[in-house]
Design goal:
The complex is a heterodimer of chains A (325) and B (716). By secondary structure, chain A is an all-alpha fold. Helices cover 72% and strands 0% of the residues of chain A. Chain A contains 16 helices and no strands. Chain B has 716 residues and is α+β, with helices and mostly antiparallel strands. Chain B is globular and about 85 Å long. The chains are: A mainly alpha (325), B alpha+beta (716).
Chain lengths: 325, 716
């Protein structure tokens, strides 16, 4: 297994270079270093000298991808792309365009992102699996039919609607929790209750329907018939046998997102005033802060790759037939 | 799992219970406290007064830092008064030989102006670790080693703080910082043209910095600045090249606030910047508030500075101020509020709802909530809606010192230039584009159609008949009325485009409008603009682009017609008229004159007017300049926006001041009233949630019954 993991990590390097290059090209197609300088220095009274100074200080006065004036390897290394990318692979994110340390921001903001993402993930998984098993249990009855209809309706509604609707009902009309904000200690619960419920409900349709499909496929198999023939209760059949055997497709979708929980949710964090990494990324995009954007994209890619490796490993844990070689 | 859920429910109940409402986003200990609650949407980039220039930054820095001057809170027109200064400085004029000139000397004869500024003795800095000393007078935290640094993550981790008296050298130090090679002061370019020796000083510092190891401390005290010197402990002198009366206004901005050298020395220590501990993040000032919590991702808290010197509430203002109860606190020591909590709320919906629930004390009005908040009387007077009135919410309005205009690129071969043909074309468009309608539709009536570039409240702005732009308006029944479209069509025909057709080529007249369209919401305004040009049978092609591309086009002169705006830095007509001064055009000179307008007569008058003191002579010159502009019509004058803001009944001493930002010290809160109202407005309504829960349980019951039945039947 170790060889497999090492191989996967090595495969990740060209992927990460590719992601980095793509982010770089996409960003600089839309923004020039001069645009970035103007955005940071403000709109009024920005002189060409101030722009040149800003770029020089941050290394944006180099060519983007290829330095024709340089000689030898410097043609490639004396570029913005190379200089900014190399440090990323050592997880040195550097400073945001406003001068603040990105690594410090990431570690500070990871907590609030996890505070909302982890409960949504765990509670969501619990709810979706149970709903799916319920529909599978009552397959071909009115419960199953209306369950699927409800799932399709829930899937069809924008997540923004859940957020605004939730804030309107629970906070504005019923006055049960704050509309937005984030606090430490025990106050965290009252701020997170609504975003967590909204997070769970907004994804309930798609997930419950997907798990139902998986369970229905399993339910038709011979071992289920055997289990029933042995006189096991339906609940025991579903929770002990079907659930366990449906784990591979479930893990495929679930484990891969675990590392990404660190990155938080872009819209949820903005609307609920959660100072997490999703909110940080949105701010960086709006303020054309390339240093933060590339760091967050890089981090996202790394976490995604980690998630895929974890998924593969998890297969070996739930299915002894799987070997990673 | 059940246990976890029970704990969660208990925690929720505990955190929700107590004397405050369940939806109260603030800690229960703040109930009834003398705290003002506000929101901010964008995190500030700079809190260092030498770099900070945005309105979302100055709302913090203006409460913390004290420049020598400030604007009077209540007087209008806006008037400068001393803040840290003991009295208003007087300009002293000198000729090239250093001889003193009289106050009314010819500006051309003035080689230097000297401002001698005396500051108040006894003013002290807020407590700060940079100023902490041990018993022997040695600084406690100026030689930080790795051990001390390992325990520090934020400024509050330094256990000791200190303070000292404000001295004139601190102001001198700050002016030097404008030229610091590692800082980006947006006004350095401008000030280097005026403050004697500042440009050369920047070169000296640059050389000195390059000789230092990377990140080494650049001690500005070792390098004197020719034009700025301390005369004694409480007096300093600034020498300006020529005459620049507007310099006084700059003295009211945080760029000229004092910085103790100890702070710069402290923050320059290796290891602190990596922890975001720097002057851009943790200010140190003498103002009424200090930044006690700095988490720009969530909350920024200003707390009363315990060392504040005790300014008092103004005793005079406009006649209406006394009637409005704005002078009741005259002579009382400031500030009235103990703490100001700014919560970050990026989205308008939560922000608005929190204001309605009483969790923000004031609010702006978005276009989506305008009808809910404001209604207009038959006379067109804006007032709060009945719903708002019922909650005791009041509306304050003020015309901003801003202008939104549509500019013509004067370098463009069709709409630009000073030829009669192009001038008449621009004049025709000036009549056709109906800004009264624009303000009504797209700004909910919040604006005044402009008659020229100068905003109301600024010297040189004229009201009434004499202030009307005769090119686009007639004076009818005591008010301006836009000229009929026929007048525009006549001008268009005289320009060589009868009915929108080029008389020479027979081709329809097509013009290009560069706009920064950000979303689908901008489409109606762009469609409206097309229709305005359509009145003259001119085809307007909208070239919507992002702001970067737009700026690029303007800089290179590739736009034909564009929209832009300006917010004044200070209340002087020069700060508006320079936007059309030829030598400050964008193309070639990178100035602020985006239209690239260059009229020799206007330029000559501008050069004369800019250095004059306000008076009849200056006013006459401004009148002439505005008349030239109206005739040349390089801009459609657009409108001056009106700011509307809502305030709850418990916040007092509020008078909108569009130039000064250090106003929180004047405001007052009735915390008991706020607490009472919050309780009334936010009673938790549990029954819908319980009903929903009951409905959910009821829907589960048949399923449980069916399950049991199946299980039993299976057992049979």
């Amino acid at each position: 297994m170790l060889n497999y993991i090492i191989r996967r990590v090595l495969y990740a390097i060209p992927i990460l270079i590719g992601v980095n290059l793509l982010t770089f090209v996409l960003f600089f197609v839309v923004n020039t270093p001069d645009d970035m300088a103007r955005m940071q220095l403000g709109i009024k009274r920005v002189t060409p000298e101030a722009i040149a100074k800003w770029k020089a200080e941050r290394g944006y006065d180099r060519p983007l991808l290829y330095s024709a004036q340089a000689s030898g390897a410097a043609k490639v290394t004396d570029t913005i792309f190379f200089q900014k990318s190399v440090a990323l692979f050592a997880f040195r994110f550097g400073r945001a365009d406003d001068g603040r340390d990105i690594a410090h921001e990431i570690t500070t903001r990871m907590g609030p992102s996890l505070a909302i993402a982890v409960p949504v993930f765990i509670l969501g998984l619990f709810v979706y699996l149970n709903l799916a098993l319920l529909m599978a249990f009552f397959r071909a009855t009115y419960v199953d039919f209306w369950g699927v209809v409800t799932c399709v309706v829930l899937m069809s509604i924008s997540s923004l609607f859940y957020i605004i609707g939730g804030q309107f009902l629970v906070s504005k009309l019923w006055h049960l929790v704050p509309i937005s904000g984030y606090g430490g200690g025990i106050d965290t619960f009252k701020f997170l209750a609504l975003p967590v419920v909204v997070g769970v409900v907004s994804a309930a349709g798609a997930n419950a329907r997907w798990y139902r499909t998986i369970f229905l496929e399993e339910i038709g198999k011979d071992y289920v018939r055997t289990a029933r023939a042995k006189g096991l209760s339906e609940a025991r059949v579903l929770f002990r046998h079907v659930l366990q055997n449906a784990m591979i497709p479930i893990l495929t979708g679930v484990v891969v997102v675990i590392p990404l929980l660190f990155l938080g949710g872009l819209i949820t964090e903005s609307f609920f005033g959660i100072p997490g990494l999703g909110s940080y990324t949105i701010d960086a995009i709006n303020s054309q802060d390339f240093a933060v954007v590339r760091s967050m994209v890089f981090l996202g890619s790394v976490l995604y790759i980690v998630g895929l490796i974890l998924t593969d490993i998890s297969y070996t844990l739930v299915d002894p037939r799987v070997r990673l070689e | 799992m059940v246990r976890s859920l029970t704990i969660l429910a208990l925690a929720l109940a505990i955190s929700g219970c107590g004397s405050s409402a369940w939806n109260n986003p603030y800690p229960a200990r703040e109930a009834g406290a003398n705290v003002l609650y506000s929101a901010f949407t964008e995190r500030p980039k700079h809190l260092d007064p030498v770099q900070s220039y945005s309105s979302n930054e100055i709302i913090f820095t203006a409460q913390i830092y004290e420049p020598p001057l400030q604007y009077h809170y209540l007087r209008r027109p806006y008037a400068l008064i001393p803040l840290a200064a003991a009295k208003m400085p007087e300009a002293q004029y000198y000729d090239r030989k250093g001889r003193r000139l009289p106050a009314d000397a010819d500006p051309g004869a003035i080689a230097f102006t000297v401002y001698e500024i005396a500051i108040r003795p006894g003013v002290r800095y807020q407590p700060h670790p940079a100023l902490a000393r041990d018993r022997n007078g040695k600084f406690l935290y100026h030689q930080l080693g790795p051990r001390e640094l390992a325990r520090v993550f934020k400024l509050g981790d330094f256990p000791e703080t200190g303070s000292r008296e404000l001295v004139a050298d601190d102001y001198v130090f700050q002016v030097k910082r404008l030229a610091h090679p590692r800082l980006h002061s947006p006004i350095f370019g401008l000030m280097a043209d005026y403050i004697a020796g500042l440009k050369e000083y920047a070169d000296t510092l640059k050389k000195a910095a390059s000789a230092l190891p990377k990140g080494g401390y650049l001690d500005l005290n070792r390098y004197p600045l020719e034009g700025v010197q301390a005369v004694d402990r409480y007096t300093y002198r600034i020498r300006i090249k020529g005459k620049y009366p507007q310099f006084m206004y700059w003295l009211a901005m945080p760029f000229f606030a004092p910085i103790p050298w100890e702070a710069e020395r402290f923050y320059a220590q290796p290891g602190l910047a990596e922890k975001n501990i720097n002057l851009d993040w943790y200010p140190v000032g003498t103002g009424p508030y200090l930044l006690s919590e700095n988490d720009p991702n969530r909350v920024m808290v200003l707390t009363r500075n315990p060392n504040y010197h005790g300014e008092t509430y103004p005793a005079d203002g406009e006649p209406a101020d006394a009637r409005a109860g704005l002078l009741k606190d005259a002579g009382k020591p400031l500030p009235f509020i103990e703490q100001v909590v700014f919560s970050r709320d990026k989205e308008s919906i939560p922000r608005w709802n929190k204001f309605l629930q009483g969790y923000y004390d004031a609010s702006g009005i978005g276009s989506d909530t305008f009808d809910q908040a404001v209604q207009f009387s038959g006379q067109g007077e804006a007032a709060v809606s009945e719903a708002m009135k019922g909650r005791g919410i009041r509306l304050e309005t003020a015309v901003a010192l801003s202008t939104y205009y549509m500019g013509f690129n004067m370098l463009d071969p069709v709409v630009g230039g000073l030829s009669e043909r192009a001038r008449k074309l621009r004049q025709a468009i000036s009549i056709a584009v109906d800004y009264e309608e624009y303000v009504s539709i797209f700004a909910n009536g919040r604006g005044i159609p402009a008659q020229g570039p100068i905003a109301p409240g600024i010297f040189g702005y004229r009201d009434g008949k004499e202030g009307v732009n005769p090119v686009a308006y007639d004076w009818v029944d005591g008010k301006p009325r836009r000229k009929p479209i026929e007048a525009a069509k006549k001008l268009l025909a005289e320009a060589g485009y009868p009915d929108g057709i080029d008389a020479k080529t027979g081709a329809p007249l097509v013009l290009y409008f560069d706009a920064t369209a950000r979303s689908a919401e901008d489409k109606p305004a762009l469609d409206w603009m097309r229709k305005q040009y359509q009145k003259l049978n001119i085809q307007l092609v909208v070239r919507a682009t992002d702001y970067n591309r737009f700026q690029d086009k303007i800089r290179k002169g590739n736009a034909q017609i564009f929209e832009w705006g300006w917010h004044a830095d200070y209340p002087d007509p020069e700060n508006f008229l320079f936007l059309l001064h030829g030598p400050q055009r964008k193309v070639g000179n990178d100035g602020e004159n985006a239209a690239n307008y260059d009229n020799p007569e206007f330029n000559r008058l501008f050069e004369r007017m800019k250095n004059m003191d306000n008076g009849p002579e200056r006013e006459a010159i401004i009148d002439r300049m505005v008349a030239i502009l109206r005739e040349d019509a390089p801009w459609l004058w657009g409108f001056h926006p009106k700011d509307y803001a809502l305030y709850h009944a418990w916040i007092g001493n509020v008078k909108p001041n569009k130039l000064s930002y250090n106003n929180l010290k004047y405001q007052r809160i009735d915390a008991a009233l706020r607490e009472e109202r919050r309780r009334d407005w936010n009673q938790p309504l549990l029954w819908p949630a319980l009903l929903g829960l009951a409905a959910f349980v009821a829907s589960i019951v048949p399923a449980v019954i069916v399950y049991r039945r199946r299980e039993r039947s299976a057992a049979k």
